[in-house]
Design brief:
mainly alpha, 3 strands
């Protein structure tokens, strides 16, 4: 191995990983190359050839679905296939309409849904305080269809449970939620910027900002502990950004 081999390898990985993940790649590679030198398998300090990469906080835009892509995905939910079509449909609606995290969907319990008030209680969030959110009609209908027509008989109080094998009737994991999303995106033929459940969370927040919601309202819905986490969505509010832009002295109309 030579220094240019290391540089070329790291450069080739940039197209496959986000900047945050590239930091992990460089750390792992640095440890591996140092180990090789300690074992006498390499004489040169090749770890010094690992290129650095600037990473600025909030330098990118939120990765989300367009309005048309979201319509495609939601329209395709009527075509969900066995073994758990109604469960997949309800899971995706909870993600798209409420902006929940995968773990929050998996943790939902029957007692968390107040059908009379039309609300849903999230007892565990990253904020540590929980939250009560309005339950959109389509998401509520999807949950009802699942509970009435597909959910196995079980004493388990979690809303979503396994349907097959030895875990039948047991609560699902976050991986099951992600699997439902991947199937939905593939079925709709949508090339998602994120191959997982968080794309719906970013999409909901982006739509709220474009429709005039404040960052505090977005943070409350998403369950952000600090407004700094929500500020990335401010870059989507083009109308407000135009109002705060300062005139450029050298430019005349």
């Amino acid at each position: 191995l030579h220094p240019h081999d290391v540089t070329q390898f790291v450069t080739s990985m940039r197209g496959r990983f986000a900047p945050g993940s590239m930091k992990t790649v460089r750390t792992a590679l640095r440890s591996f190359l140092s180990f090789m030198r300690m074992e006498g398998l390499c004489e040169q300090p090749l770890e010094a050839a690992i290129p650095t990469e600037a990473r600025w906080r909030l330098s990118t835009l939120p990765r989300c679905l367009s309005d048309e892509q979201l319509k495609q995905v939601l329209a395709s939910l009527s075509q969900c296939t066995p073994p758990c079509p109604l469960r997949d449909r309800a899971i995706v609606w909870c993600l798209a309409a409420l902006g929940l995290r995968p773990g929050e969907v998996a943790a939902l319990q029957l007692d968390d849904v107040d059908w009379r008030q039309g609300t849903i209680r999230l007892s565990t969030r990253k904020t540590g305080r929980g939250a009560v959110l309005p339950l959109p009609r389509e998401a509520g209908r999807a949950i009802v269809d699942y509970l009435r027509h597909e959910r196995p008989r079980t004493d388990e109080r979690h809303v979503f449970v396994h349907h097959r094998g030895g875990h039948r009737g047991a609560p699902i994991s976050r991986g099951v939620v992600t699997g439902a999303v991947i199937r939905a995106l593939r079925r709709a033929g949508v090339d998602s910027p994120i191959a997982g459940a968080y794309v719906f969370r970013h999409t909901l927040a982006s739509r709220m900002v474009r429709r005039g919601a404040s960052l505090k309202e977005v943070a409350d819905v998403l369950g952000h502990r600090c407004l700094d986490t929500t500020t990335i969505y401010a870059k989507l509010d083009i109308t407000s950004l135009l109002e705060v832009a300062l005139p450029w002295p050298e430019v005349h109309p």
